[in-house]
Amino acid sequence: MSNRAIILCFSLLLLACNKKELLFKNPTSQETGLFFENTITPSDDLNILDYLYYYNGGGVALGDINNDGLVDIFLSANQEKNKLYINKGNLKFEDITTKSNVSGNSSWNTGAVMGDINGDGLLDIYVCAVVGVHGFYGYNELYINNGDETFTESAEQYKLDFDTYSSSAAFLDFDLDGDLDIYLLNHAIHTQESFGKADLRHKRNEQTGDRLLRNDGGIFTDVSESAGIFGGINGYGLGISIADFNQDGFPDIYIGNDFHEDDYYYINNRDGTFSDQLKDYFGHTSRFSMGNDVADINHDGLPDIISLDMLPEEEVVLKTSEGDDNIQIQKLRTQKYGYHYQFTRNMLYVNQKNSSYLETALLSGIAATDWSWSSLFADFNQDGEQDLFISNGISKRPNDLDFIKFVSNDQIQKKIDNTKLVDQKALQMMPSGEAHNYIFKGVKNLEFEDKSGEWISHKKGVSGATALGDLDNDGDLDLVVSNINENVSLYVNQTNEKSNYLKLKFDHPSPNTFGIGTKVYSYAKGELQFKELYTVRGFQSSSEPMVHFGYGGIQQVDSITIVWPNKTFQTLKNITVNQQLTISPEKTEPFNYSHLLKKETPIFKKVSNNLGVNFTHIEDNYTDFNRQKLIPYQNSDRGPAVAVGDLNNDGKEDVYFGGSKFNSAKVFVQKDSFFKEEKIEVITKDSINEDVVALIADLNNDGKNDVIVGTGGSDFYNKMTPLLDTYYTQSGLSFEKQELPAYFENAAVIKAADYDHDGDLDVFIGNNMVSNNFGAIPNSYILKNNKGKFSILENQPFQNIGMITDAIWEDYNSDGFVDLILVGEWMTPKFFKNTKGNFVEENLIKSKLTGLWQQIAPFDIDKDGDVDFLLGNWGKNSKFEASQEHPLRMYYSDFDENGSTETILCNFKNGAYYPLLGLDELASQIVSLRKKFTNYKSFAGKSINAIFEKSVLKKARIFEVNTLASGFLKNENNTFTFVPFKNELQVSPISSFLEYDFNANGVNEVLVAGNYFGVSPYHGRFDSFPGALIVNEDKIILGNKIGLNFSQKAVKKLNIIKVQNKSYVLATINNDSAQVYQLIK
User: Fold this and answer.
1) In the structure, how many helices (H) and strands (E) does the chain have?
2) Please, what's the b/e burial string for 938-957 (b: 16 or more CB within 10 A of its CB; e: otherwise)?
3) Rounded-to-integer distance, Cα 63 and Cα 61, Å
4) Secondary structure (3-state) at 417
5) For the segment 769-810, what is each residue's pLDDT rounded down to a tens digit?
6) Terminal CA-to-CA distance of the chain, rounded, Å?
């Protein structure tokens, strides 16, 4: 054999060894017998320009229709006939469509679901259809199983023969009467009537409105109106999930609506009616909501939700696709039209039971999966964690920006409306949206790892409806995926004996013979897994009616508690794994839902009258993005200022709240048992200032407290008077305004300490940014106190150190002089050693730690006797991406040399830095880019080095962020190591820490608050952090579990106030009412 041949053989052998086997294999149609292709052929008379849901596809339903122990497959088609395949074993399937009489009579079928509708123990099939538009004919069809592999179409008999715009349907027993009811999910089409205010949903439309259908002895009665189900012409229903979200024993409903309509979160009122409580429990939702699914992803026994959207991951597609609204349109939608906040990305909602969901999709790594249809949670590798499969792709992308620009032309629009002359050109301008499907491995801490390409093939296509089932009876879960213009795909799971499992099926009394709505709580080695049996999941599909658990290497399950739909339960113990159990109700007992989950003891109780502190902050209606369009976030919304202290010398603490533009400051004076607003003329007359921070302290040593107020708000700039901080001293029974040095800055923090040991309090004032010049570094000062008169301490190392947000005086080296520690945005925490009044910076942190730091607080979190430092950062749940190797970058320069500066933020991806924003956003500030990039395609996929010349970038100052995580600096002999908090504390920026002994056990804890809304719709809203109590480094309790209600509120500051020797927490909230909480001791 020649050397060349030997080398070739060796190379092939090496390639074969390195080719790792996928977790799922995809047998061919020739191997399986599944010859089903949902072929869609556009024509001049009908295409996506005519019908916006042209490429939504058909449905998949899995179940054992002949009770032979093998899972069969039903597939619905749009322009083709439906098909039913019998599983013959060994992944071989036989087409029995003709024999079974289920091919269908409608011209455009959509979702397909299986369920035992008549209680005879046999799975029936319900097929949805779109009827009454574009010549589509037919009706929703119900195929009753005859028990001999034939079916009888009986929709009219059951009053289910709807001729509407149906997407899918779901089985549930919403009234707990023992039989299965149906929720029929319909969708609107774009008409002049479908656009308007949100209250359109209250006016029922027979074609587009959803329907709740109560089973009355085999006849289905439409109870939608009386049950509180919306049915408007603006309801674009694509996704439906059923679950007992609040764990009260009654099924609830989550509906995903496409386009402008909000999703619906129907909570079962337990009296045959539902209440939509979306805005109470969700700070925001996906904008183009598509498929959704439910599972307990964090082992707390509560169902969590994923809702899919269309955010691409790949740069070219991302920059050529329409994204989120601009901020003005968002305000119009939410404030004038009454819709909720919606953003274009997948959302993952983590259930907090009876309080707002945490939304973690960006943090969890599953926010961007392109044109996504179906989401299915399951433990595919059987390690005990929920994994996630997402189907993907569309034949033509109607959200392509070049296409939208073309069809938005007035002349083109007239031709489209009146003729078919430009249809073909318009269709040709729509690029293909073929994409690979995604699969994610679930790991701890609310995170998922992308295993696409490792577990499944990266092959691109157009996949839609997807269903789960164990097709080969080997114990692991397989997938059936319907594709457009391609044969159906089988994803055969090859986990097999590598990990252990348990399958549960239910033999439930008629009429709910499959036990739909049954809950299962599995306990193994101290870990809870929770499942709830509802078969309609993902998108336009239903999965095998069974419950599956993975257990990794565990050989025996300690116990399984089955809670039946009638709220009785039974428990099995010491169950051997790797088997299928069929369970019937036996020796059941009433189940007490109130004892279901571990509960924390409330520490806080909201005071109904707020102790008279009736303060509502009204934010200046100024939008920073109108002046500087490319900044990463606003600065004008950092108020209100708040300070607590005795302002009338009666020994009681009073409260000062700073004003906002055209809204005066307010002072609440403490009386015997409450506070009363009192006007202090000299303080409240400054109604133009935007007060951001305040300090109450005796600054002139006369025994009376004085006030310093730091102002800001980027509405004011240069040397405008409202940027001057103010200083008031007490004089007799009133206050007098005193002079401060004339610096014009945007204040962020004021902290007092006698740094020079001269007997009076000096003041550090940290400033955050320069108005109308984001990226420029402001001056921060120590104001040296001389008998109540202040002067700037010049030439200090911290004067231009960065965009300061917080500061503390702390003698971290125990030399008797307080040192200064600063944090800020686009900088690392800075330690300044105070040596007898002289400051020198010290490097005490082991790693790069540039962040968007918001807060710092001293606290011995690890209880080792020294002082650690808590750090509030931006959080990991954003589109910013930062790491030690690849930091987030901000380029700051006058890119177009027009005399004003711009900032361009970039994430690292695939070996280069790419701007976060697209061509429209960048060119709105840097107009010259429109000449360089004449269409979106020419811009898409370009890194910042390709967008700007090297000489231009060389002039830019580059800011970097290495970490976005909040956490703490662990003190190890005065050298500090950063330790991130758990992910529940990373969902939003942290804006306040408050140390106190809240539970009166003699040991201090730290209360944490945050959330922030001052970003463009591209970033969404950081609104779901409920607050938290840090007990120590191992114990952190979320605020909603201990009586707090901080979700959907941008908490600015936490303070302790004392009234009649009782302690209360005062939470001051941006653009909202302050809250007062009593400490329960």
Assistant:
1) 19, 74
2) ebbbbbbeebbeeebbeebe
3) 7
4) helix
5) 999 999 999 999 999 999 999 999 999 999 999 999 999 999
6) 87
